[in-house]
Amino acid sequence: xxxxxxxxxxxxxxxxxxxxxxxxxxxxxxxxxxxxxxxxxxxxxxxxxxxxxxxxxxxxxxxxxxxxxxxxxxxxxxxxxxxxxxxxxxxxxxxxxxxxxxxxxxxxxxxxxxxxxxxxxxxxxxxxxxxxxxxxxxxxxxxxxxxxxxxxxxxxxxxxxxxxxxxxxxxxxxxxxxxxxxxxxxxxxxxxxxxxxxxxxxxxxxxxxxxxxxxxxxxxxxxxxxxxxxxxxxxxxxxxxxxxxxxxxxxxxxxxxxxxxxxxxxxxxxxxxxxxxxxxxxxxxxxxxxxxxxxxxxxxxxxxxxxxx
Length: 309
Known about the structure:
Distance between the termini: 40 Å
Structural class: alpha/beta
Shape: globular
Oligomer: single chain
Mean pLDDT: 88
């Protein structure tokens, strides 16, 4: 396996840290030693000021044309796009039809980079090769296991070998896993595996999620700025559905942003929610979706400012 420099947030992991007991320090340090730098391509330069590194999930726009979605990326303050596929969206399928070269030209036209592709319930080795060809570094899939993580990781080894070969990261979402399961997974995940953390799936305790972020920071590759609100599994008024977004629902993202800052996190952040049914834009037009994402980004920017004081 390739060698990596120490992660930028390694200063957090000291025996005297008020956030870690000595036992936690020993356990986490051992895990870090085995997985150091797994998301180092996203780490901040030591003296670089903290700033959330936004990636736009194409699923926010349902099945709108890929050209229209890519054009929205810079307007949302993001530099990267995350391609989703059915049933949540179909931009990845659209790219398959238009071809890699045409998609690369579209990205170049709008000065956008492919950050990741999200693929659920399917083998992801070929998706790693697709993303790598376009200069991306990550594939997002699920799910962090609810119990013993080692058998889960063992089953993924053939595909993870492709990630290692290509110097890519596989980010596993915490769908259904509790705090303890996420911590256990972070401790044993191999270097090419990171965690895509979705507060939506956790108890809506901002301080507890912030503590979790501090504990797993070296293995955090994607942070979904996404809360539970009133959920996303049934039809409901749009104003209730939008409660999943930062600043709309009751969850205070301040402790989470502060934890990300403390960790010098420069992994991807996605402002995210699910509409009902899946596959439609969160609002009626691309412009309305972008406006709503920017409203959430303004809320998070205030949390960034507060985290700096």
